[in-house]
Design goal:
Alpha/beta knot, six-stranded parallel sheet, binds zinc ion, 13% strand, 7 helices, alpha/beta, two-stranded antiparallel sheet
Length: 255
């Protein structure tokens, strides 16, 4: 894990055009090696030309696979994406690449027949949603409910979400959610249900809230989930400039 000094050095040059660094407190691995990779690789699985990771196979390219961080999550994540969502644009792929033991991406209507014993929960905001912090605590005191071992995210626009939610295999799943946060995503999320967050942000915050509930504080063990997200955030800000972007209002929103 990088020391605060190392993180400061790694980002001082990149952040010079950005008034505030919303990621400065996060413990994310130095990503400067990504800038040394100029071309593309051939994906070892599908043989298509890819940069950093294959958004179809959800694996890193050979150039970066031994350099990117690896995150172990306390329970599994399924992301169900709408077939009309473009693979290359989905930030959910970041989670599958960084936490390959825990995260899989499924395309609707490929929805598993999930256990309905409390061990699987759907991450979705709504009247019936229970904050993940509460869900974890009540599981500990409820012998009839199995402890959480998987959460399901839906990666789609609001209009597509209703159709996915109606899938028979999702009926009867408890809904969990996390504390609302503002997004740093550069691509406006028209009609996204989860407070307009990028899917990778939603995954990250769910685990931040979970870690906080479980340990009593958040010890940053999931920050590297945002490895590619932070890299792309700075890339895009360096291209378009900070003035027009959401950096200033976002600076206090990241931990
Ligand atoms: Zn591939």
């Amino acid at each position: 894990m990088a020391s605060p000094l190392q993180r400061g050095i790694a980002y001082s040059s990149m952040a010079k055009n950005v008034k505030a660094d919303p990621f400065s407190k996060l413990e994310i691995k130095d990503d400067s090696f990504l800038n040394t990779i100029s071309g593309r690789d051939i994906c070892a699985n599908c043989y298509k030309s890819r940069k950093f990771y294959c958004y179809s196979c959800y694996i890193p390219t050979d150039s970066v696979k031994n350099l990117i961080p690896f995150v172990e999550l306390p329970f599994d994540v399924d992301v169900i994406k709408h077939p009309c969502e473009t693979d290359g644009k989905s930030t959910a792929v970041h989670a599958a690449v960084i936490a390959p033991n825990n995260v899989r991406i499924l395309t609707y209507p490929d929805v598993p027949d999930y256990q309905k014993d409390g061990s699987v929960a759907l991450v979705f905001p709504g009247k019936k949603s229970v904050p993940i912090k509460e869900y974890v605590k009540t599981s500990l005191n409820n012998s009839e409910r199995r402890s959480l071992n998987k959460v399901v995210f839906i990666d789609s626009t609001w209009n597509q979400t209703g159709g996915i939610l109606a899938h028979p295999n999702l009926q009867g799943l408890p809904f969990v959610t996390f504390e609302p946060r503002a997004s740093l995503f550069w691509r406006y999320q028209k009609g996204k249900p989860l407070c307009h967050l990028a899917t990778i942000e939603a995954i990250y915050y769910l685990f931040v809230d979970y870690g906080t509930a479980f340990d009593g504080y958040y010890n940053r063990q999931y920050d590297n989930i945002l490895f590619f997200f932070r890299y792309m955030y700075y890339k895009i800000h360096s291209i378009y400039g900070a003035e027009n972007l959401r950096v200033n209002q976002a600076k206090q929103l990241f931990y």
